[in-house]
Design brief:
Length: about 325
Amino acid sequence: MTRALVTGAAGQLGSELVPALRARYGEQAVLATDIREISTSGPSARLDCTDRKAFARLVDEHRPDVVFHLVALLSAKGEENPQRAWQINMGCLESALEVARQAGCALFVPSSIAAFGPSTPPDPTPQDTLQRPTSIYGVTKVAGELLCDYYAQRYGLDVRGVRYPGLISWAAEPGGGTTDYAVDIFYGALQDDRYTCFLSADTQLDMMYMPDAVRAAIELMAAPATHLEHRNAFNVTAMQLTPELLTTEIRRHRPGFEIDYRIDPVRQAIADSWPRRLDDSAARRQWGWQHRYDLAAMTRDMLENLSRKLGLATVPSD
Ligand code: VAH
């Protein structure tokens, strides 16, 4: 019986990973933690991951087989205060690695397409390639991948991770990301039938719908360790989107939807430094990764669930 502890459980990924883990392993088997108060029916606790003693105490009490460590300041937020982003992203990761090492539990640490930079081959971006990111978030992701590899090789820690693309979800709003337009656009479409986008119409980025992202984390941690050549930073993707492509798909459901553009130079520069299309064949080969949601399926599901969440008349699915 697997027991899990999730840090950053109130975040965009955590708020859907916790229910999925509880459905698979039982409600009491999953402890949700976050620096913020969490409203959840199952076990939860407040945790500042930089407080290593408190982190170790919760692990000692809950005795997880695996910790899903999701705490990070995202790309755009990080550029507002790079020093704080380094302290939080690396300080919390160091605690997670040390606590997992001493407790003897496995560890999931997500990386990101942000771990690549303008000198990385953009299309396709190979599994193994040059990583010179120009955002502080990307710098912490590359440093994190290397630190996790070190803990695996030096201490035999069973630490694993994926490089997530932009994640699209309706349950919890994202915060401080560059790919957040792909979530915000659905709120705009449903509440105002219009959206002002902070990235240019042709900005192509890898994206993934949250149910696929949650399944990737769970399936990677359940995979036989012997199959994992890359272990800490598997490229995973599901689709390549631009604001233009997403607008056209939304208009299939809401023909009157309007979009205009007010470019945010900081987030446009970050997006321009990221890949256009990840090669995720290593994940498909080594642990059977397979996305299930494409653009059409994601758009339909987002509109239906977000309409319900916002208390709007549900959008007729075609
Ligand atoms: C961000 N949503 O935009 C995050 C993600 C690949 C992007 O890491 O910063």
